[in-house]
Specification:
homodimer, 205 residues, alpha+beta, three-stranded antiparallel β-sheet, two-stranded antiparallel ribbon, 5 helices, extended
Chain lengths: 205, 205
């Protein structure tokens, strides 16, 4: 249902939801707050599914990313929580993640700076963030979809879907691992001293 | 109590524990399995503290790292879980982490290879792992203690404690961020196409 909701929402700006056994839909009001509309739909799905999930010890745990631009307004991106509340990206937190976030976060924290990182560089950082996550959690893998949106373009003309064994993905992965290794080797060696207990306690580490 | 236990254990190879209101200690048998001894002590502490913690909705959640070498045996490292069971490092998983693990894991996964990574390089990877964690979680910070142990040396002669604003730590941090940025810029730009829905749906991202 949620998948249908988001697809329908993306294509026709409708919110689709089920209530009293019937499927309803209503037009989304971008100008008020699309994110709140979607959040409200998440709450409705939560009301429908929560009991059955919790009976089998699952949490209702859906996170959504929503991005877009309405003509005459700036582009916006939101993370919508399972409780339905939206979080907006900001100048200080210019990126949003969902799912297995932590492995891929440091490279974004280091690289993405609001209004200074180019869109092309941001795409590389995003891909490297996925690469780090896939390296550390084998359950995360292709396909990876990237979509770059240029402000005020109203065009979806920079899209890429990386499938398993995509040659470009494998090249980037290999180049990146080599660069990291070289960068580590180029760092100065650390300086060490004796441990304070070196003399009194030579046996145990 | 656990702190005392570990300190006492490190200094004198004693296990210290409290039972029936009294503090007891007994000598640890390295050859059987020190890790199991410590794990058993963790269970005893768990028995003592669990009820009070759970009354205030805390979990008993202590993780310990234990490393060392007994003369005549190889060096070993263990992660000891709150339930008392030990996990050993292996050739395939040559490092152990505890606490806020995920931010700092990809750099270790990429860099640390059993019997191929030098001890000096491993120290840099460990420090960069902490650097990534500190970058992405502000509650993690110095002091950072590193101790390199050379197999069969039975010496604690490569120890370093990095305090806040340690100049070497700040240099490494700055060099590393610059290297990463350069490495990203040096990667080839990604290739993009139009999104399949480009023509039918030019408005929404």
């Amino acid at each position: 249902l949620l998948d249908e909701l988001v697809r329908a929402f993306g294509e026709r700006r409708w919110i689709v939801y089920r209530q009293d056994g019937d499927v309803h839909r209503r037009q989304a009001a971008w100008r008020l707050s699309v994110a709140c509309e979607v959040g409200e739909a998440v709450r409705q799905v939560s009301d429908l599914d929560r009991a059955a999930l919790e009976r089998d010890s699952y949490n209702f745990n859906v996170h959504l990313l929503l991005g877009g631009q309405v003509r005459g307004e700036g582009p916006r991106t939101f993370l919508i929580y399972p409780q339905g509340n939206p979080l907006s990206s900001t100048e200080d937190s210019p990126f949003l993640q969902l799912g297995e976030c932590k492995y891929g976060r440091p490279i974004l924290d280091r690289g993405i700076v609001y209004e200074s990182t180019s869109l092309k560089s941001a795409a590389k950082y995003a891909l490297l963030s996925f690469d780090a996550t896939m390296r550390s959690n084998v359950t995360v893998g292709p396909p990876i979809e990237l979509l770059l949106y240029t402000k005020d373009s109203f065009q979806l003309d920079n899209y890429r879907r990386f499938r398993d064994k995509d040659p470009e993905l494998e090249t980037i992965h290999a180049l990146w691992e080599r660069s990291l290794r070289n960068a580590v080797e180029d760092l100065p060696d650390l300086n060490f001293d004796r441990h304070p207990a070196h003399d009194s306690q030579p046996v145990l580490l």
